[in-house]
Specification:
By secondary structure, the protein is mainly β. Among the domains are: 132 residues, Jelly Rolls; 102 residues, Jelly Rolls (Sandwich), CATH 2.60.120.10. Strand 15 and strand 16 form a beta hairpin. The longest helix has 9 residues. It starts with a strand and ends in a 7-residue tail after the last strand.
Length: 343
């Protein structure tokens, strides 16, 4: 049986108060099989009445438990939300990339200096002058890859670890669950004792060696910026601010990383959706979303339906009209072609 952690931490909203009806996340300890499989999501409402309104920081080795708090939107509100149709059916269709780690064969990266580097772009946003490419990069043990970024990149570590050194001398061991930001111009040495796999979003055209090295890129390279490290981002679950919306959906969104290249701004963060009324959202920008936990049941303005599960990648073009639902919980790492705070 599982035992709830006795420690809880109240995480207020930006106004200083817990949102009424917010779910409660509790770290529990389960059997070894559950620990090794990652996060487990269970409903144990009768077990957490004594800690209602508390959130315990999520640890990768623990289990995730959700229970409904008081004041949750009732069935009438849910039914009313379900009756709302997508406004102005249409807009571009979302694009679904299923289980990208298992289904993507990574070719060897050309010009990798003898390193055992493998890379493939999987999804693209092709807005002229603001292109984005998302894909997978793997490095196996052997010679280091020495790389200078001619574009901005955000990389989530999917498995293994990367031992990184930048041009400032900063050293980071980026492990599965960590997030890295490599500003344009960053000089990085990639090494690994065994293997490392990263999901990246680059502010660039495809392929990566087609990026034009213009005066702005040269200036960035000369400035020798430092990489930025965000450890274990999934542990922040439950701290994301509530996303205000007319549907009264249980949606939470928190920006983490900001690329501020003028005219090409790019923002990444976590979006958490909990069971309840659906969220209807029209994208005013391009977005790529990698599903980290749970699942999203999605319907776009064309009528297309997708169940996006952990390990899937979604592309939402500008103008796409999306209905977000989840039977229990969905957590996604997004990267949007927008400034911070403009979701």
């Amino acid at each position: 049986s599982s035992l709830c952690s006795r420690t809880c931490k109240v995480l207020p909203t930006t106004s200083g108060a817990m949102r009424p009806g917010a779910q409660v996340y509790v770290k529990v300890f389960d059997d070894e099989e559950a620990k090794s499989s990652g996060l487990v999501h269970r409903r144990i409402g009768h077990l957490v009445r004594g800690v209602m309104g508390c959130v315990v920081a999520l640890l990768a080795a623990g289990c995730l438990v959700a229970a409904r708090g008081a004041g949750r939107p009732g069935s009438a509100a849910g039914a009313a939300t379900e009756a709302v149709s997508l406004a102005g059916a249409g807009g571009p269709a979302m694009v679904h990339f299923s289980q990208i780690v298992n289904k993507t064969e990574l070719p060897k990266l050309a010009g990798a200096g003898g390193s055992k580097s493998y890379l493939k772009d999987v999804a693209f946003s092709k807005v002229p002058g603001k292109e984005m490419a998302a894909g997978l990069y793997r490095l196996n043990a052997g010679p280091a890859l020495i790389y200078t970024y001619t574009y901005e990149e955000i990389k989530y570590i999917v498995e293994g670890e990367f031992h990184l050194t930048d041009g400032t001398g900063q050293k980071v061991v980026a492990r599965a669950g960590d997030l890295m930001h490599f500003p344009r111009g960053t000089k990085v040495t990639f090494e690994t004792p065994n293997t490392g796999l990263g999901y990246y979003i680059g502010q660039r055209v495809s392929p990566e060696d087609a990026v034009e090295v213009d005066s702005a890129v040269k200036e960035a390279m000369e400035s020798n910026p430092a990489m930025v490290y965000f450890p274990q981002i999934k542990e922040t679950i439950g701290t994301q601010p509530y996303l205000e919306n007319e549907d009264k959906s249980n949606s939470f969104l928190g920006d983490i990383v900001f690329s501020k290249v003028l005219g090409k701004e790019m923002t990444a963060g976590l979006y958490l959706d909990e069971a309840g009324p659906a969220l209807h959202y029209t994208y005013t920008y391009e977005e790529l979303k990698y599903i980290l936990e749970g699942e999203f049941h999605l319907t776009d303005g064309t009528g297309q339906k997708v169940v996006a599960k952990k390990g899937d990648l979604m592309y939402f073009p500008k103008g796409s009209q999306i209905k977000f639902e989840t039977p229990e919980l969905g957590l996604g790492l997004y990267c949007g072609q927008r400034r911070g705070g403009e979701a």
